[in-house]
């Protein structure tokens, strides 16, 4: 099956620093990757859609200068939380669409628990 | 606007059957997904329906009626490990996933 690897799984950082989260499709190519944020007891909130070789599309209310997304290849997208603050503490999850299976199952990474202190 | 509704929380007894409903209003339709999510973990895929009818997969079944904008997830022979959130998601005309808020299922012995 298709595997998406997300790293790191947990990270604690100091307020004001930046954190990079990687999302890799290990055995398939993904033209599109999605970044979600999830607060406790809430559903997934789409932050942005990342397309290989082009700028990410951000959802309304998501600061593009704070959440930098780079989709440099068909197997890697990164999310960088810049100048992190405690309110950025959350569970971040990426998902990828298989290049040959558009519209079918989304494959999720394991998620990253970010804690900003 | 796009909207997906599902109950916030349900409680059921171990060994019983539970049905989790999902209604949706989206811009186009290219399939409906059910995912299971345990606390602190990423969602895991359960089912995908794109045509009307019932899809059965072991203890889990999923039903879709496109004309009614309605789906349900049926869980049989409930086990304690089935305690989790169940997320309904619809792929719209742009193949973007629209997520429901999730249903927290509590299983009691």
Low-pLDDT segments, ≥5 res of chain A:
none
Tell me roughly what share of residues is in helical segments of chain A.
under 10%
Overall pLDDT of chain A:
89
Q: Strand portion of chain B, in percent?
A: over 45%
Largest sheet of chain B: 6 strands, mixed
What is the total tally of β strands of chain B?
11
Order of helices and strands of chain A: EEEEEEEEEEE
What is the count of DSSP helices of chain B, taking H or I runs of 4+ residues? Answer: 0
Give the end-to-end Cα distance of chain A, rounded to a whole number of Å. 37 Å
Form type of chain A? globular
Distance between the termini of chain B: 40 Å
Q: What structural category arises from helix and sheet content of chain A?
A: mainly beta
The shape of chain B, in one word, is globular
The percent range for strand residues of chain A is over 45%
What secondary-structure arrangement, pairings included, does this model have?
The complex is a heterodimer of chains A (117) and B (109).
Chain A: E1 4-7, E2 10-13, E3 19-25, E4 32-38, E5 45-51, E6 57-58, E7 67-73, E8 76-81, E9 90-97, E10 107-108, E11 112-116
Parallel strand pairs in A: 2-11
Antiparallel strand pairs in A: 1-3, 3-8, 4-5, 4-9, 5-6, 7-8, 9-10, 9-11
Chain B: E1 3-5, E2 9-13, E3 18-25, E4 32-37, E5 44-49, E6 53-57, E7 60-65, E8 70-75, E9 84-91, E10 97-99, E11 103-108
Parallel strand pairs in B: 2-11
Antiparallel strand pairs in B: 1-3, 3-8, 4-5, 4-9, 6-7, 7-8, 9-10, 9-11
Kindly summarize this structure in a few lines.
The complex is a heterodimer of chains A (117) and B (109). Chain A is mostly beta strands.
Describe this structure in words.
- The complex is a heterodimer of chains A (117) and B (109).
- Chain A has 117 residues and is mainly β.
- Chain A is built from no helices and eleven strands.
- In chain A, the strands form two sheets. In chain A, strands 2, 4, 5, 6, 9, 10 and 11 form a seven-stranded mixed sheet that branches. Chain A has a four-stranded antiparallel sheet with strand order 1-3-8-7, with no helix packed on it.
- Chain A is globular, with a radius of gyration of 13 Å.
- The model of chain A has no long low-confidence stretch (mean pLDDT 89).
- Chain B has 109 residues and is mainly beta.
- Chain B contains no helices and eleven strands.
- In chain B, a hairpin with a 4-residue loop joins strand 7 and strand 8 (70-75).
- At the A-B interface, strand 9 of A face strand 5 of B.
